[in-house]
Input
Amino acid sequence: MSAPEGVHQAVILVGGQGSRMRPLTDTLPKPMLPLLDLPFVERQVDHLHRAGVQRIVFSCGYRPREIEDYFGDGSSRGLEVGYVVDPEPLGTAGAIANAEALLADGDVFVLNGDILTDLDLTALVAHHHHLGAEATIALTPVDDPSAFGLVRTDADGRVTGFVEKPGPDDLTPGEPYRINAGTYVLAPSALTEIPRGQQVSIERDTFPRLAARGGMGALASDCYWRDIGTPASYLEAHLDLLAGRVGSIASPGSSWVSPRASVDPSATVGSGACVGPGARVGPHAVVARCVIGAGTSVGEGATVDGAVLGRDVTVGAGACLTGPVVAGDGATVPDGMAIRGPATVPTGAVAST
Ligand code: GTP
Output
């Protein structure tokens, strides 16, 4: 499949601090956190590549080295990959404009680096060209838009307005609640619209200006969509993958154990458990509905259910982690300790009750 009418380039925004994902983002930028066997952002790169994209620019800020070291110049994947780094926080629009020097003339996809979706990119481009829009955004339905930006459109799929964090008075009963899904196609004129050398948000500054002059399209779809912004949504994304809910990615089964992990034959790997490379699950341990990072060890008789554990975490023998417990890289839970979430064990720390 190739993108019609020539959208062969993309910018992926990967420069945010990922503060809601701490402590997992203390040591890795959010887009490099693994989803099963691959860094999350690699799934976006594959999605773009399958849609005919040849050139990808990562717009980096926080911890750019991890991303550059992983993707290099892209040639091993048959791609051209480049990098720009925010000299200071530029906001989402500033970060896109910063990538301009590495882009060819023409339209460009822009992806927020923390969205897992199987959106039909070809349909997005077709809608963009059909409207002759300057920018076209994908929309996703939500039950409650109050934490998001509500996007309103006319019958042709042109944006008529944005309402940031709408309150009850902003909502019309019965209207579909659709929010910005973090995937865009921008024409060169939309890039020109972004002022240089200052912090600019594409959602709050640029898009409303383009919409006001009738230049913005929006395509609603019911495809799979998840914003991986918090440890809870990160765990849910794993569960979605296991359940086969992400159309473009085959489910590996009701749980996943890396071929490079070791699980004692007497341990129980329950539904929703994801065990990363080099992890060890000891005798009679029970793991379920959890993410166990690379090199993490779950001791004899320990239970991990509902937790997200970073890399090289040590869960002592007989320890019991239940509910939303998040442990940063190198954290330790002593033998026999019980922690019921919500709870966080900071990076490198020893948990205390
Ligand atoms: P929080 O700190 O938890 O809000 O996460 P975040 O820093 O990732 O912010 P947010 O989820 O709003 O960002 C959406 C996407 O845009 C993410 O992929 C970020 O990496 C990226 N992003 C946000 N702000 C910037 C920025 O100023 N520069 C660049 N290059 N990318 C950004």
Observations:
- The radius of gyration is 21 Å.
